[in-house]
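Board notes (copied after class):
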Amino acid sequence: MELTEMSTETLVFLDSAFLVVHTALIFFNLFGWTWKKTLRLNLLSIFLTAGSWVAFAPWYGFGYCPCTDWHWQIKWALGQTDLPNNYLTYLFDAWTGIAVSDEFAFRLAWGALLPALVLSLYLNLKGNGKKKMK
């Protein structure tokens, strides 16, 4: 089924679901390393996120996120246009009304993800992600 064939109610639900899930994914990427139970999953999630930003660059541009792309397709089906290139730009405006540039949001995304990657990688290599055998 094409997005244009979906009911407005379904599209509104999907829009809200993407807002919650995509935002939760961002927070998980940034803070999922703090719990032993999620440490390995956090590292995988960060690698997949950063990987998509880099791997899809030749086709979609540096920083491409499939979640943002899918969310924007839903918003376009709802008739929303003039969406920013960066999801964080959208979140700042949607949550606070503060307008930030895509460049600022891009730098913030990398500036926040890289320390989370370093911490997650360090803790995983240190062994905090392994269960101790008795």
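Comment from the instructor: Residues 29 and 45 are 6 Å apart (CA to CA). The radius of gyration is 17 Å.
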